[in-house]
């Protein structure tokens, strides 16, 4: 029997804020003799809001009151009451995630309705979400190839690389369409990001607030931005300015890219025809898109059409998928409920190429969830071996412990989500190897993906199982 939920997605980005309502159909796909497995079986976008420039009080402060007013206005326009909404996602991304009051804003918005996924996405996680929203993961899986997605927004360009449907690399550059802003009334520059001033100087241009805009100078700067994008994709030799423009890290160079997709607001202008005002939005977004169109990126890499562009990050909202853990689990203390736990899913290659690779993959991918170099509590998900010997479990637990050393320094509980039925012995082994002085939760028979969030409820059936709610950002795929 199907059940329908109304879901809302709210995306607060560097340039734009928008909202989407979706109707989500869920159904128990398991047989009568199996543990319930509730899955999304259909999704229909029923309302797309206007796209607003993200209101700011200053370049460092989000106007939370104005954002809430915009969202409430869109609820009215959509004919939706807060009580109608059963689930949702509020995501703050890009430069906006670095603003001083980002956490306060999402907490305010999350109170609008329901039990939302509330997340400030760091650049790596945002890159993954946008790549999935654009459909790059589906192309890579269907055609067994490597696809890179460039999500070019107002303040950053997020890069995600998918191989056979799985994320293998991410990166982020401080390149975007609103890093230079222009007052359309006076034609004066009102804002230039500090790194863009540096880039301009390498092009022999001094640019600052208050200057009358010179289109030829803006074009040289956007062409310089595109050369840095080419460097990020290994189409040019990397320069010192490339190292300066990286937000947190760039892509590696140990694979060949088959296809490229684009998302973000700038993506809509990559195939833009000449004729309209290049600074029509009071920024350089249109000009940047045109420079990408005329660059070697499109000629040297095969371009594929994205499912979504400006709405790639959150097309649908979070949907709740209720599940029950396996009956062989470990939890050393009842610290439930745990709400909105972001999930790090290890890939097949991470697990099959040796324990050292596994350890390094955990350590590296935990950086996806860092904000301003600060870690957050994360659940580690892996398939795990089938019918392992105890010596295998001991070695696996040692690698996991080494991989999560930064999490352990923060005194976070160890939370593992395993597909195969090994949670009890693995959790108990980790607990012992940590000298019984860390909280450990290890559950199995649960399948999650990168980009999911999870709630874990209080134990049921005399403590033998726990209820789990998997919150999945729903894309147009």
From TrEMBL:
This is Ethanolamine ammonia-lyase reactivating factor EutA. The gene is eutA.
């Amino acid at each position: 029997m199907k059940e329908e939920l109304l879901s809302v997605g709210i995306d607060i980005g560097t340039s734009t804020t928008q909202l989407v309502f979706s109707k989500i159909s869920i159904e128990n796909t398991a047989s009568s003799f199996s543990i319930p497995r509730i899955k999304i079986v259909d999704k229909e976008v029923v309302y797309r809001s206007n796209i607003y420039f993200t209101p700011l009080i200053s370049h460092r402060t989000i106007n939370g009151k104005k954002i809430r007013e915009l969202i409430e206005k869109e609820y009215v326009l959509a004919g939706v009451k807060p009580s109608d909404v059963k689930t949702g996602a509020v995501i703050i991304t890009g430069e906006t995630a670095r603003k001083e009051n980002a956490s306060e804003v999402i907490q305010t918005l999350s109170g609008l309705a329901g039990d939302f996924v509330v997340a400030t996405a760091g650049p790596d996680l945002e890159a993954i979400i946008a790549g999935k929203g654009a459909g790059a993961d589906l192309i890579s899986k269907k055609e067994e190839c490597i696809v890179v997605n460039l999500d070019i927004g107002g303040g950053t360009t997020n890069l995600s690389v998918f191989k056979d449907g799985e994320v293998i690399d991410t990166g982020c550059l401080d390149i975007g369409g609103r890093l230079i802003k222009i007052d359309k009334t006076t034609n004066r520059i009102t804002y230039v990001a500090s790194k863009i001033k540096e880039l301009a100087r390498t092009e022999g241009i001094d640019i600052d607030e208050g200057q009358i805009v010179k289109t030829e100078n803006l074009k040289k700067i956007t062409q310089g931005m595109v050369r840095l994008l080419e460097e990020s994709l290994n189409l040019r030799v990397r320069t010192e300015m490339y190292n300066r423009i990286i937000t947190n890290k760039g892509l590696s160079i140990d694979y060949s890219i088959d296809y490229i997709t684009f998302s973000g607001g700038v993506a809509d202008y990559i195939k833009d025809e000449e004729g309209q005002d290049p600074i029509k939005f009071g920024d350089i977004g249109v000009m940047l898109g045109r420079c990408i169109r005329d660059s070697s990126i499109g000629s040297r890499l095969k371009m594929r059409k994205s499912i979504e562009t400006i709405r790639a990050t959150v097309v649908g909202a979070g949907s709740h998928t209720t599940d029950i853990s396996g009956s062989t689990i470990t939890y050393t203390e009842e610290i439930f409920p745990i709400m909105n736990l972001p999930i790090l899913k290890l890939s097949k290659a991470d697990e099959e190429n040796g324990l050292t690779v596994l350890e390094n993959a955990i350590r590296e991918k935990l950086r996806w969830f860092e904000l301003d170099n600060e870690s957050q509590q994360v659940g580690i998900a892996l398939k795990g071996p089938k019918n392992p010997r105890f010596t295998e479990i001991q070695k696996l637990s040692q690698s996991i412990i080494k991989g999560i050393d930064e999490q352990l320094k923060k005194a976070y509980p160890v939370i593992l989500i395993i597909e195969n039925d090994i949670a009890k012995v693995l959790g108990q082994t980790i607990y012992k190897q940590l000298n019984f002085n860390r909280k450990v939760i290890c559950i199995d028979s649960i399948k999650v993906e990168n980009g999911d969030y999870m709630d874990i409820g209080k134990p049921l059936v005399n403590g033998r199982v726990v209820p789990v709610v998997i919150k999945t950002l729903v894309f147009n795929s």
